Amino acid sequence: MQRFRACNFYSCFLINSKVFLTPSAVTPFPKRVCPGPASSCCLDFLKDPKICFPFLRRYMSNYSNFSTVNEQMRAQSVELLRADEDSHGGVVVSIEEPVDSVVFASLLGVSMSQWRQQGKKGVWIKLPLEHSNLVDAAIKQGFRYHHAEPDYVMLVQWIPDTADTLPVNASHRVGIGAFVMNNKGEVLVVQETSGRFKGTGVWKMPTGTVNEGEDISAAAIREVKEETGIETEFLEVLAFRQSHESFFRKSDIFFVCMLQPLSFDIQKQTSEIEDAKWIPVEDYAAQPFVQENQLFDFVAKICLSKSEGNYSGFSPFPTTTSSGKKTYLYFNNRDVKHLLSSSI
After folding, report:
1. Separation of alpha carbons 238 and 306, rounded Å
2. Can the keyword Metal-binding be found in this entry's annotation (predicted)?
3. Backbone angles phi and psi of 206, in degrees to 5
4. How far apart are the first and last CA of the chain?
5. Which part of the chain has CATH 3.90.79.10?
6. How far is CA 130 from CA 95, 98, 137, 141, 164, in A?
7. How many separate helices (H) and strands (E) can be counted in the chain?
8. For the chain, is the Cβ count within 10 Å smaller at the N or the C terminus?
9. What contacts 24+ positions apart, CB below 8 Å, involve 32-35?
10. Domain spanning 172-316 has what CATH number?
11. Which residue, 125, 199, 116, 105, is CA-closest to 161?
12. What pairing do the DSSP bridges indicate for beta strands 273-280 and 250-261?
């Protein structure tokens, strides 16, 4: 029975292995006269160990490296997840087409094995909102959340048995406060309909968050326009402060910016602003809340000093990075002519 099973196995093996063979390499079957149906002849052949096993020995001796060939063929036919290499020895997978979660899990497992053999480091998987069904499969294979945006989630995994050097998610939120003063020595202030200052009677400068891809100067101009309807021109960054654990455990950088008004008729934003007006800069600095809080008091004194011409902030200077991107460098412009004319 064991011999019959072995012959059956190798018979199937021979039939299914023809794709790996060349005609000159095939050991021919022994010639026998077949008096009956082909099926009975094949069965007799398989049952006769004197014929079956010697033939298999001769056949397999010609393919001592068959297992190697088989492995190579399987490796060539394995489908991997499509990925782009990054500049730090890792890969980035972007799923764009619908895929079943079971199929994805299988492809991911094979791909991870391949990337591990290739010495890849970090693996990033970007899953659009419509493919969120794949998150669980990735998590079960060791991936973790890195960050999320309104339209996708990014998962990541570090492969080597070394210290994980993948960059963490963005650590800071960037905000601005706009110090807008007219030629009468009046500063533009608002009271908000929500937030910590709601109902306190405190007058504050327009504030807001810098959007992704937005310059500090552009954000300050935009926020003033949105909240008060005033058109402005950006002049300087007067000061900035950094705080921690301020927004979902993220740190915060806040830039106090000075802007020059180009219009003066206030049209407040009804959804966020309770009231807006121009008041003397001295009245702004004299508010009890401002004077009782050291940080606000310092900012107010800087603004007062600037209004008197005794303070100079950081002005934006347009420049380019090594990759050709346009950007701004902020610095004190008192010695700008010297800096631009000097050589190192």
Report:
1. 8
2. yes
3. -60, 135
4. 90
5. 172-316
6. 10, 8, 15, 20, 30
7. 11, 13
8. C
9. none
10. 3.90.79.10
11. 116
12. unpaired
- C-alpha distances in Å from residue 19, one per residue of 15, 16, 26, 52, 191: 9, 7, 11, 22, 80
pLDDT at residue 80, as a whole number: 87
Distance CA 78, CA 76 (A): 6
Structure tokens that stand for 153 in this block = 């989630």
The Cα 319–Cα 215 span in angstroms is 13
Quick one: tokens of 147? 């960050």
Residue matched to tokens 């926020």: 223
Three-state SS at 254: strand
Contacts 24+ apart (CB under 8 A), 107-116: 107/79, 107/80, 107/81, 108/81, 108/137, 108/138, 108/141, 109/141, 110/78, 110/79, 110/80, 111/80, 111/81, 111/83, 112/141, 112/157, 112/159, 114/78, 114/80, 115/83, 115/91, 115/159, 116/159
Largest Cα separation within the chain, whole Å, is 118
Which segments of the chain does DSSP mark as H helices, in order? 2-16, 38-47, 49-61, 66-77, 101-117, 135-140, 216-228, 281-285, 288-292, 294-307, 336-341
Q: Give the whole-angstrom CA distance, residue 296 versus residue 174.
A: 18
Q: Read off the tokens for 305.
A: 């000093």
Q: What is the CA radius of gyration of the chain?
A: 37
- State the DSSP string of 293-325: SHHHHHHHHHHHHHHTT----BEEEEEE-TTS-
Give residues with Cβ within 8 angstroms of 258, minimum separation 6: 179, 180, 181, 235, 236, 237, 238, 303, 306, 313
How far is residue 179's CA from residue 307's CA, in Å, rounded to a whole number?
10
Query: How is domain 79-158 classified at the architecture level of CATH?
Result: 3-Layer(aba) Sandwich (3.40)
Measured in degrees and rounded to the nearest 5, phi and psi for residue 212 equal -60, 130
C-alpha separations of 214 from 80, 147, 218, 223 in Å: 38, 20, 7, 12
Q: What is the pLDDT of residue 60?
A: 47
